[in-house]
């Protein structure tokens, strides 16, 4: 049973006439543990109508093909897995609004999964205004629905943690796959708004994956989760921040595209009780859902204006402090600063789409230190992260950058530029890790790529 608080009815109609039920797969690109898909099947069965699942392939926002490849690999898995369940799937290039409105003309009901960013909400409102069918939104991107967890922007992880822990039993129920609805419909003769495309054909036109370490898709996500449980969970609490090894779960890109369910991860990981499990699940649920809370309730999440409380006050106080270095965006993007550790992190991000979590915090704080003002630093950190990171343009990205500027943190010792915002430096990296080994690892990686090309 799907908890009712996962479901929001945005538009209802007096008629249930229609030839089919639509599920627009948008934020959650998977067939396993997908509340929106299972709800759509339930509705199709109840109305005795066939179910059509579709996704819209928009042009990428910038020239980076890595996000497009990851997305297409995900849709390739979705298509194959839905065929096994006898559910038709179409990948349609074009405008999400135009395609959805065209398909909805003959639909009894449109169901979609919930997105949290401004563009997701604005698009859904625009579609709702002209939609002839009913519209239901199902939240499957988080364990505890964002509005159920809190009705306001939370100050920190500590304030949200108590609320989520209280609700976990209610929202962590296993999700059983439903049988397909009535699929007796002439899909082969169906007139599409735009001709469907095959992910496999589009993938063939992209450049090779190169140094990108992850294949996209829910099948690859399942393999990565199994590997994490078997090889990396033990010791995770102590090793996860060490950039010299490969101790992270590697699940963040799959969570970003909804190619794996956080609920499934939670139910599998919690079977292994340990301190490592507690640390990992706190990151998976509390920290990740704090990010969703942030972008939901803070309308300025994508700009420096989002910073408030002590952080805004102290950064404004130190706005005019002399900076030890000032770098233009192009030099930052190419990893051409005086700091070899920062450069290695930026180059790894640029060429692989991945950066160790601890270094991402250091990376963001140094951008604050090496730019003219906090507004410029915030904008550039978001631009570089969203352009290159496989898990970019996601609530976690926006909350992660905001954290570097003091959001969700507490005051520390006062320093130039930072004020009382938490400070990080290269000496701290050298004390904590064999950080020189990390720079050598990145250098070898890039040298290998140069030889191959």
From TrEMBL:
Q: Alphabetically, which GO biological process terms does the record hold? A: photoreactive repair
Instruction: Quote the SUPFAM superfamilies the UniProt record gives.
Output: Cryptochrome/photolyase FAD-binding domain, Cryptochrome/photolyase, N-terminal domain
| Domain called Photolyase/cryptochrome alpha/beta: residue spans | 19-146
Question: What one GO molecular function would you report for this record?
Answer: DNA binding
Annotated coiled-coil positions are none
Task: Recite the UniProt keywords alphabetically.
Answer: DNA damage, DNA repair, DNA-binding, FAD, Flavoprotein, Lyase
Enzyme Commission code:
4.1.99.3
Cofactor(s) recorded in Swiss-Prot or TrEMBL: FAD
- Record-linked PROSITE patterns: PHR_CRY_ALPHA_BETA (PS51645)
Substrates-to-products reaction catalysed: cyclobutadipyrimidine (in DNA) = 2 pyrimidine residues (in DNA)
Q: InterPro entries of this UniProt entry?
A: Crypto/Photolyase_FAD-like_sf, Crypto/Photolyase_N_sf, DNA_photolyase_N, Photolyase_Class-2, Rossmann-like_a/b/a_fold
Family assignment from sequence similarity: Belongs to the DNA photolyase class-2 family.
* Protein's name according to its UniProt entry: Deoxyribodipyrimidine photo-lyase
